[in-house]
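Second attempt. The first submission of CcmD family protein had a stray character pasted in from the spreadsheet, which I only caught after the job came back as garbage. Lesson logged: always re-copy from the clean sequence file. Corrected sequence (110 aa) follows.
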Amino acid sequence: MIEQSQSAQGAPNAPTSDHSSAPSAGAKDTADTHGTQFQAVDGGGETRSGETLLVEAYTVLWVILMGWLLLLWRKQASLNARLDDLDRVLDKAAANLKAKSKPAAGSTAS
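This time the job returned cleanly.
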């Protein structure tokens, strides 16, 4: 009985006859037909080689990477210069503090 109902309805995955391969002139573009049928486009002169696109993509990535590394290198150099300046200022402040504390310690000992 199951076989008879399937044969009467057709195969479960078989296309039905009410759907045509091309939409009629008056048919609306619905979600059911959109993207399921191939329609050739005349003219399509904008074609690019996949190899060319791949090389261009890698070139762009390398340029971005090198620019980022240059930016990091410059920031690191700036930070190193600021740390060197801070180190000099701290050394000078420590020397001034030692110079001020020595005479005061010497005057109390006399």
